[in-house]
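Q: Got a minute? One more chain.
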Amino acid sequence: MPIKLSPEKAWFTHMKTNNNYDDPVSVSTKDHHRLIINPNDLNKYLDIARESALKAGIILKEHFRKLDPSMIDEKAKNDFVTNVDRMAEEIIKNHIKNHFNNHDILAEESPTKRNSSPFLWIIDPLDGTLNYIHGLPNFAISIALEIEEELVMGLIYEPLRDSVYSAIKGQGAYKNDKRIHVSHSKTLNTSLIATGFPFRIKDIIDPYLKVFKNLFMQATGIRRGGSACLDLAYTAEGIFGGFFECALSPWDMAAGALMVKESGGVVTDFNGSNRFLKTGNIVAGIEGVHLEMLKIIQETFNG
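A: Always. Here it is, folded:
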């Protein structure tokens, strides 16, 4: 018999039982217990993420290239938000709350109020806002779920291409329900690399450009698309051999990071640890390319 948990934790059972699930997912609790999460529950979370993203995507498509200047605000220097971001975020949050009222939500355009829930939804309703404002068709919706601070589900929706990237911990990564894998290129000199410019902390532009130059000299090419979650999705899909960026927020990386891992790649921060959601610095890609990129980054920033 599974151990009875509080209503908030009713989705999972302690490993103290001997229940056998098909491909169960295990996460650590803060009190060092192991929790087994039923895969059916994870699929339910993914379904809700997909439904909310598709609903919000309708708003993004309806307003694309139709924005009035009055709908745009500048949160900080070169960091913008639109009414469309806010509308899409409310749609996603409301849909999640309608199904999981006790879960916490961390979303880009809303103040965060944490309760005691072990469930945390991490949402970017419009990653690539500046692209969206200027009519550049490179933006997406990103939704991830952490349980006890461990990523277990991620979804990225690219509305204009109607592409849904998804991943569940231990179950692989998919694009429109077709399994995806990281690039077969094992070295920088055969890989296309993606990055993003550190517009939030321009005082590190010199070391960043040094890293950029070193990678540029070794890689097949470098691309800067303006949407970190899509860069990670494309890395999981094998388009990019690797991706790096600094000073990101959790909602920029969470879903995409899980996808890269589940597609066979490696994801770390600039120190080679798993703390990228905390540090905001991320290096992701197929193992060999990741190692080469990480070495260049560390030699530059730690030198």
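A: Confidence is low (pLDDT under 50) at residues 1-21.
Q: Perfect, thanks.
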